[in-house]
Design brief:
α4 runs parallel beside α6. This protein has a single domain, classed as Rossmann fold, CATH 3.40.50.720. It has a seven-stranded parallel beta sheet with strand order 3-2-1-4-5-6-7, with helices on both faces. It contains eight helices and seven strands; from the N terminus they run βαβαβαβαβααβααβ. The longest helix has 29 residues. β4, α4 and β5 form a beta-alpha-beta unit. By secondary structure, the chain is α/β, with parallel strands linked by helices. Helices cover 44% and strands 15% of the residues. It is globular, with a radius of gyration of 17 Å. The structure holds NADP nicotinamide-adenine-dinucleotide phosphate (NAP).
Length: 254
Amino acid sequence: MVQVAGLLDGKFAIVTGAASARGIGLATARLFAEHGATLALLDLDRGAVEAAAAGLGSGHLGLVCDVRDAEACRRTMGGLEARWGRIDVLVNNAGITQPLRLCEIRRADYDAVLDVNLRGTLHMSQAVVPGMRRRRAGAIVNISSVSAQRGGGVFGGPHYAAAKAGILGLTKAMARELAPDGIRVNAVCPGFIDTDITAGKLTPEMLGRILEGIPLGRAGRAREVAGCCLFLASELAAYVTGAELDANGGLLIH
Ligand code: NAP
């Protein structure tokens, strides 16, 4: 019987992009720790990621790892497997966005958004899968976005929608390929969540327009997305793979 508390007791989990104080990554790491997991938080800023990990309690690690760098992902994974013996859960959360319109997207913008969101998800998954395969167990949760499903129109531009749609395709293909190895792969599609990803670029007009379209009438909270990640990472979701789990307040109802 699955317990409601301690859903990740004894598990070792990695969350990328987990240093942002109000972000989905740190909220997910915190909820996983509350459910008994030992966490490795990965992010770009050493001071921030170490402080975030320390804030979870003892035994958790905060490591610098740029998910755009495949070698850094492999190195980080190798170090964690040597230390812990295994990784049970990977949450590919690191992401950036830009509120650009189609014809404003320059090559550097496209590369930046695709590299962190889509390539980063591939790199970390490639680093974690060999160990999961050897143990014939593991859960990977990829953070996509409602932008992938509804063609943007929230904050990020078309290149962000494309990156997040790419993550959905990658998630489903990984789920199909890795299921025989006992590895489940799922995606969470957050709607408009109150974090700092908009980096001060969200105008009152944009905010009003977005809120008007949300049946629940408010932005989501990072912890509400974390709950979806917890479900998908845990044994509660033992028969769930290749799924997209929406956390959007009704912004998109299929
Ligand atoms: P956030 O607060 O900005 O957190 C994202 C974190 O990822 C930041 O700490 C960021 O570091 C880090 N990061 C950026 N590039 C990285 C890299 N190359 N390697 C490792 N870490 C990197 O954003 P959030 O809102 O929590 O978003 C988390 C995820 O949810 C993202 O994938 C985002 O696209 C997705 N999402 C968010 C929303 C929303 O409304 N908030 C909606 C749908 C989907 P820096 O701060 O140093 O850049």
